[in-house]
């Protein structure tokens, strides 16, 4: 399991307060906010389901009957791998763009490395090489959308340059979990940790 950096998330929720709207066995409704809508979220559970909704998105997980207990740990850190949680989504689908986004960085890196391997120390016309470099920077490395990037690469002259950048890019296509989804996974674990600390494990009033 690769644990995401928890510090930015903890800064986002540093002033969040827990409000318990419902606590009836497996049926719970908890909300967390600093009094504004910024990064505010709610956690709702019912048998075999947990929903987090709010400023950063809405996701529904289903793994066990008591999802609150399933997500709980003694630490506010992530207990479960976000990839595992994504595989247990009931809504949206795990391939939805709110869950996974095109990871353009490896594609950009592969294009740059291929270009430099081909032309560094080359006897080709320096002005031509410079023009190709500008084309790569202006038309390809500025694209963060998969469809836009692949469309732009169709106009690359693979025959003349000896570089099949389109084929290279297609071989490097990868989708990573979105920042919003990972944030919400962190929020579920942190929120339930707060709930157990402040409500479940809190000493009864005299």
Q: Which band does the percent of strand residues land in?
A: 15-25%
Secondary-structure element sequence?
A: HEEEEEHHEEHHHHHEH
Helix content: 40-55%
Oligomer category: single chain
Number of strands: 8
CA-atom Rg in angstroms: 23 Å
- Give a short account of the largest sheet: 6 strands, antiparallel
| Number of individual domains | 2
Provide a descriptive summary of the structure in words.
- Helices cover about 45% and strands about 20% of the residues.
- The protein has two domains: about 5-100 and about 180-200, no CATH class; about 105-175, no CATH class.
- By secondary structure, it is α+β, with helices and mostly antiparallel strands.
- The chain is built from nine helices and eight strands.
- It has helices at about 5-10, 65-70, 80-85, 105-120, 125-140, 145-155, 160, 165-170, 180-200, and strands at about 15-25, 25-35, 40-45, 50-55, 55-60, 90, 100, 175.
- A hairpin with a 7-residue loop joins strand 2 and strand 3.
- The radius of gyration is 23 Å and the shape is elongated.
- The longest helix has 22 residues, at about 180-200.
């Amino acid at each position: 399991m690769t644990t995401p950096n928890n510090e930015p998330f903890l800064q986002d929720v540093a002033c969040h307060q827990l409000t318990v709207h419902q606590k009836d066995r497996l049926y719970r409704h908890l909300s967390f906010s600093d009094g504004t809508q910024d990064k505010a979220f709610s956690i709702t559970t019912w048998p075999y389901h947990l929903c987090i909704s709010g400023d950063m998105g809405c996701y529904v997980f289903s793994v066990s009957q008591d999802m609150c207990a399933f997500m709980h740990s003694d630490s506010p850190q992530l207990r479960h791998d976000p990839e595992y949680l994504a595989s247990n989504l009931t809504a949206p689908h795990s391939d939805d763009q709110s869950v996974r986004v095109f990871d353009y960085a490896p594609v950009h890196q592969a294009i740059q490395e291929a270009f430099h391997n081909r032309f560094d120390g080359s006897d080709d016309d320096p002005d031509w090489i410079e023009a190709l470099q500008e084309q790569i920077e202006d038309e390809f490395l500025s694209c963060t959308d998969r469809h836009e990037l692949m469309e732009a690469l169709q106009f690359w002259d693979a025959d003349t340059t000896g570089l099949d950048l389109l084929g290279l890019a297609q071989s490097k296509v990868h989708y990573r979990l979105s920042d919003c989804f990972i944030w919400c996974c962190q929020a579920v674990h942190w929120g339930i940790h707060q709930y157990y600390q402040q409500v479940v494990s809190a000493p009864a009033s005299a």
